[in-house]
Amino acid sequence: MNLYKKLVSYRESDYYPFHMPGHKRNTKVMEEINPYEIDITEIDGFDNLHEPEEILKEEMGRAARLFGAEETYFLVNGSSCGLLAAISACTHHGEKILMARNCHKSVYNGIFINELQPVYLYPQADEEFGINLGILPEDVDNLLKEHPDCKTVVLTSPTYEGVVSDIKKIAGIVHSYNAILIVDEAHGAHFPFSGEFPASAVDGGADIVIQSIHKTLPALTQTALAQVQGERVARGRLRQFLSVFQSSSPSYVLMAGISRCMDFLERDKEAFFETYTKQLRDFYRKAEGLTHIYVLKRGEYKGFERDSSKLVISVKNTSMTGRQLYDILLERYHLQMEMAKDTYVLAMTSVLDSKEGFSRLWRALEELDKGLEEKEAVKEIKPRCQQVAKRRQCLTSYEAALRKTEWIALDRAKGRICGAYIYLYPPGIPLLCPGEEIDGDCLEQIWYYKRTGLIVHGISEDTDPMISVISEE
């Protein structure tokens, strides 16, 4: 069976998508059309994404009005290309940059390409659930005082699990140091369209906000937006780097998908978002009746808002792991989750999720909850903090790339310098970066994730796991 036939077969199955993209394959709302019929190149009358003057310029202006930005750029290579362009436009070779340690790997790629020196902001953590929280404004202030030569700050808000930092306060602090704030809001494109969700980073005053509309809105995979405002960003330089990191042959099918998404938002957002948020409220209300399975509440964390569209379903007090729950939901109930972690799964919802989809998930959790028992105190050794931890940086990622590397057994790696990114995907946040020392806590974390059935990218999956390190020769 080839890929196309496999996708068609999957389309005809009853597997339900609690994952991105946000259109949820809902062709009743987003009318299905043969993409070959509208797949063109930059012919007369259809403009050019890299020098928009006509229809694409008009469409990007429409997006700016809809999302509340001064200027919007279409992205057809995902939020990753927007982040790469934003970092390249706002920094210069070899500079320092202040960035959250829980940023996506595309931000680290931007650091590498521009040979930047990262200064890390560490998010708060919920160690009970093993979840990254947000960045504290006072931490931003303290590090900018300590590193006044950092003129660009990059944060992720919301996180994969939906935790939102106080962007308004952080933007005020960043701007008081005459620095630029870039926010990776890939998972928050839906924020402007209902008061039930946190405020967008655009409203919070960030200079550049990157949003993946394909993640939480009805748009095709790879489609995203770069929102820009204020006078701090050199927009000509940003456009230059967008052309560097975007395809020179942008897909008109993808751009048409952005246009259709905007049609939906302009025409139907009130009715659909009202139904959607009611379904979310009902789900959370029913989840309070579960005995063993725990669904993180919308107001779970003091000091940080949380996006209720992200259903974080925990089995931490049971004998089941997050990976086992993920597999059971998939194999027994045909419910495809977005992500599995050690003690929880993440179900991504969107405005096009159906009543049937929510009902199927609830019935599955209710049935599983009845068969679970609380586990007795277990001696399982867990990392003290299962999130991003402070690592000793011996080399920048660029310096590490210039060194020879070798593969050694994971159990012999303590004290060596890492030669590759080590991360879980999703969400794509590095546990270790090239150039960082591999310490005992990090090894403990990697072994723990492997014991719970998770795939750790960058670690060979042989009988004896191996890791890339900088050669000592």
UniProtKB/TrEMBL annotation:
Entry similarity comment: Belongs to the Orn/Lys/Arg decarboxylase class-I family.
Stretches assigned to the Orn/Lys/Arg decarboxylase C-terminal domain: 398-446
CC cofactor: pyridoxal 5'-phosphate
Domain of life: Bacteria
Disulfide bond as UniProt keyword: no
GO MF annotations in UniProt: carboxy-lyase activity
Organism of origin: Acetivibrio ethanolgignens
Ranges for domain Orn/Lys/Arg decarboxylases family 1 pyridoxal-P attachment site: 3-260
Protein name (Swiss-Prot/TrEMBL): Decarboxylase
Stored Pfam families: OKR_DC_1, OKR_DC_1_C
UniProt entry keywords in alphabetical sequence: Decarboxylase, Lyase, Pyridoxal phosphate
